[in-house]
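job 3f2a | input accepted
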Amino acid sequence: MKRLRELENLVREFGAAATARKLALLDTLARARLASPAQVLRLHEALCFLRAYPDNPRTLRKVEDMLAAFDKRPDLRRCAADLESSGIAGTEILFPFYDETARWLVRRWPDRVTIEWDQIDASSIDWLNSALELLVLPAEVPAVDEYGYSLGEWIERLKHPDETDAAFLVRRLATLPAALPLRQLVYEQLGLWLRVHSGTNTPSRTRAKAPRRAAHWQTTPLTSARPDLKAAVRQPPLSVRELSSRQGARYVELAREAMVTRSRDLDAFAYGDPADVRLIDCGDGLEFAAIGMLPERRLLLEAVYGFLTLRNGVPTGYVLNSALYGSAEIAYNVFDTFRGADAAHVYGRVMRMVHHVFGADAFTIYPYQLGHDNDEGLASGAWWFYQKLGFRPRDESTSALMERELARMRRHAGHRSSLATLRKLARENVYWHSGRARADVIGLLPLANAGLAVSAMLRRRFDVPREAASRTLEREAADLLGVRSQLGWSPGERLAWRRWAPLVMTLPGVVRWSPSDRAALVSVVRAKGGRRESDFVLAFDRHQPLRKALRWLVTTSFE
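job 3f2a | predicted structure (559 res):
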């Protein structure tokens, strides 16, 4: 359709003439009846882009009105089945969500979620049949043992008349007599495909928007130039606003919905902690909702945060970041609708934000983000995106290959790296340092060796069950660090202490630390389970004896 193509060509253009033409096209397309599912999707994406980058109040009002009524469009209703899992309001979503997301969906929309049985492996159905007696009361077991109803027939007999099969099964699997991690493993091994039926408030990209006090009007061309990263990290965000748990919960919900409507699942959002959410304003309508994880889901060492990228309140992508040792590993993702806009410019703001929140001056990109086992990343030219920003490999063979490719580009302006070459380049991490290059950073420090060191210590010292050993180590760590009582500690802080005690008793030289350094280690451990995990990163990085001891443990002891 000619007018739809014209609108698509105009969405990234700004100025009086472009704005006037956009409004005219929007008026026409609001009344039009599009001929195919692809055209309906294209209109939806154009509207979502204009909502994130509005020209002026009149344009935004028109776009908001069209999106609010999008699920009522006759052409959308006609082709809704063909737009399954598009995330458009009025369409259904089908995906094998993980346990936590499945329970959240059932909790929020119990009547809108069902199981797609024909997508489930026969082995999973057989296992559920054999384990059915674990999902019912003991008084029901005689019937389960005696009668050979199919799984579907049993679920119809067992569930409440108003309950869906998904609501029944997800809820009952959550009651299995096992620890939560084991229950989650069982659920995820089953591979249950869930269908989320559309409703007035079910997740959709069409309605996704965070509240914002004032819109930023896009009146000039989007910035496509690559940022100067050294300058970017020196400038702090405009503001960092701590949210209440109630406000934070709304952003955690928005982040979860952003994943569900794109058939994704991300632990950082699925286990987001409403008490650890901050809104970071980077100007020009760009904000990041920084979401920490619940204390029970945090890693032992690195702090992991998910950042939902918001442009005028519209989710446009996300960032996954882990931080420690004044360094950060960043996974940067832009949603399809917003690619090709100002990705490099926004990435500079990401670096600024991560530097400000975690004090990071060294940054790592892992191979998957560069295209390793990631065809989408290869096709997008991700490796050269980061290379042009200043990231470099430390691996000698990868560096040599990069130099050969650069030489070819200098000789032949049109040279482009082949997919085979990109695959080789993407096998190794790349790094960027705002100051001097150093080796004690995420991606180079083998932090997983801390777990091997603890296992070796347990093997040497104990011939009792690990739980008993852990209790002994908790007492020893308390004696060593002068912890007389945990009165006033939060549940998260107590959990962090239990998890860290074996590591504390494995670290070299702690007994020779000064009393103040030992007291500071207690504060570090408590911060790991405190309200904001980023406080742990800052406290850890300030503790020079701890940094040195852990670095020795994960490197020297395993040479």
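job 3f2a | The longest strand covers residues 314-324.
job 3f2a | closed
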